[in-house]
Amino acid sequence: MSEHPSTTSTPAEVTAPYGTGVQAAPQRRVRVPHLQAMKERGEKWAMLTAYDMYSAEIFDEAGIPVLLVGDSAGNNVYGFETTVPVTVDHLVPLVRAVTSAARHAMVVADLPFGSYQASPQQALATATRFMKEGMAHAVKLEGGASMVPEVELLVRAGIPVMGHIGFTPQSEHVLGGYKVQGRGESADRLVEDALALQEAGCFAVVMEMVPAPLAARVTEVLSIPTIGIGAGPECDAQVLVWQDMAGLRGGKAPRFVKKYADLRGELGRAAAAYAADVASGAFPAPEHSFPE
Ligand SMILES: Nc1nc(=O)c2c([nH]1)NC[C@@H]1CN(c3ccc(C(=O)N[C@@H](CCC(=O)O)C(=O)O)cc3)CN21
Ligand SMILES: CC(C)C(=O)C(=O)O
Ligand SMILES: [Mg+2]
């Protein structure tokens, strides 16, 4: 059962999800104005990462309006320790898989480290690959005021851009590790970065590991939606890496994670039960076998 607010039966009959309450023209895909309308109505929403077909399908059917194909695929799909080694070629096929499976959600492609910082032209070339080959609906990039020329060119070219400030994992070597950003005198700079991104044309801004009162201040000041991860409850939206949210990954999760399931335990038990059945001869049973 779909829990998208206004997705009822067949796609053809679906009316605007996250619409204004006014009957809009049939509209099955979440788009920038829907997110803007939700901010104006004070409706909070959740974003999740997705990197493959089934996760995208499940989250889409659960009514998640925005799916992010994060460069966090680096440490959640490809087995790297960080997002730094991730390339465009790593992500394009994953974006394509997610856009193919998501019927309603807006799919945002994360631009990986080194694929957009050299120039606005490089950013446009990279974003264009994600739009054409990945069939993404928007892109995300890390950085504040310094990224204004890149954001402006992408938006001028017709590509919706999501910003990302606070802790920006692609810069962890400069930032000196996984640390809360915007404490003390750097708070005003974070507000300025957020405003610069909005002014440049971003449709939303992710804030990662920012003190809750500062994130609340940015959310108040900005007219576009803020999306928090470790940025307190006052943001317009929240984002989590799905394997964190669903308890698939092992080890100690960051403070900002809440586990809503124990997929790791569940999947481990399934694998062990299957192996035990094979060992005992209980699987395959006659119903799994083909008679002559
Ligand atoms: N699975 C996963 N979840 C994420 O949230 C995530 C990724 N991967 N990969 C890309 C970035 C990296 N992120 C991370 C990763 C680890 C911490 C972390 O270890 N935080 C600790 C220490 C904070 C501190 O020292 O102040 C914490 O307890 O929150 C934070 C953000 C967020 N993103
Ligand atoms: C955690 C989110 C915001 C992200 O950038 C990612 O998943 O790569
Ligand atoms: Mg990312």
TrEMBL record:
3-methyl-2-oxobutanoate binds at D71, S72, D110, K140. Pathway: Cofactor biosynthesis; (R)-pantothenate biosynthesis; (R)-pantoate from 3-methyl-2-oxobutanoate: step 1/2. Residues 1-25 are annotated as: Disordered. InterPro entries: Pantoate_hydroxy_MeTrfase, Pyrv/PenolPyrv_kinase-like_dom, Pyrv_kinase-like_dom_sf. Its EC number is 2.1.2.11. The active site is at E208 (proton acceptor). Its cofactor is Mg(2+). The keyword Magnesium applies. Keywords: Cytoplasm, Magnesium, Metal-binding, Pantothenate biosynthesis, Transferase. Its main location: cytoplasm. Mg(2+) binds at D71, D110, E142. NCBIfam families: panB, PRK00311.1. This is 3-methyl-2-oxobutanoate hydroxymethyltransferase.
